[in-house]
Amino acid sequence: MEKYKVIERSKGTGSTFSLLSKGMVPGIVYGKGTEPTKIAFENKALQKLMHTGSFYSTILDLDIDGKSEKVLPKQLQYHPVTDKLIHFDFLRVQNDTKVTVEVPVEFLNQETCPGLKKGGVLNLVRREVELNCNANNIPDKLQFDLIASEIGDSIKISNIELPEGVKPTITDRDFVIATLVPPTVEVETKPAEAGEEAGEESKEEKSEDKKEDKKEDNKEDSKEESK
What pLDDT score was predicted for residue 226? Predict the structure, then answer.
């Protein structure tokens, strides 16, 4: 596990604005039964961790001015106008600390899945699953093999093998993670619309013809009367 060097904040480290202008992000480390510790993390290093795809389920090993701390990212705060990261919260953990994390789901063998090869669509109900487990037993991801999945199949949490000691936070039902649904069929409406428009035009033409015929009849009657 890579160790990340951070500094402990004090009056000498300056204000929040001063830290941000120096490329440091202020934050706090807290934990049950322990005193909170104010720290500052290099923005570039923090941004790199944030874009790994598993930031909130990764234990970070920090070096706080020579003191080692294991933490789990819990919350990020952004500036309401600039949208820049301005603060973070880390949870201090031990190996036996119970944590709640969201872990991504990966679907294997999509290219050979029978249902997908027939034109089916993988409808993702949950991209991540919230789990309860010890801090030292957080899975990087959950996996399901689609090698035998057909159109109409549902992938539920019971279909995914969880590591020992890892449980979903939802325990009252066997919830769905994804479904294999039939391909969407678009109904062609343009020809019908064109036919309707043609019909309307035909009615208008007939109506105009009747008007013209009526005008001609009136002219003939007028000629007869004048004679």
Answer: 47
Q: Which residues contact 162 (CB under 8 A, 6 or more apart)?
A: 131, 139, 142, 168
Distance CA(90)–CA(62), nearest Å, equals 11
Q: Is the pTM of this model over 0.90?
A: no
Q: Which residues contact 90 (CB under 8 A, 6 or more apart)?
A: 27, 28, 29, 30, 39, 60, 62, 71, 72, 73, 74
**Running along the chain, 227 residues long, what does each successive block of 10 average in pLDDT?**
87 83 94 90 94 89 92 94 94 89 95 96 96 92 96 97 95 96 70 52 53 52 48
Q: Residue 93 burial (CB < 10 Å; 0-12/13-18/19+)? A: buried
Place of tokens 């874009």: 51
Distance CA 115, CA 151 (A): 5
* Biggest alpha carbon–alpha carbon distance for the chain: 122
Query: From the centroid of its chain, how far is CA 162?
Result: 22
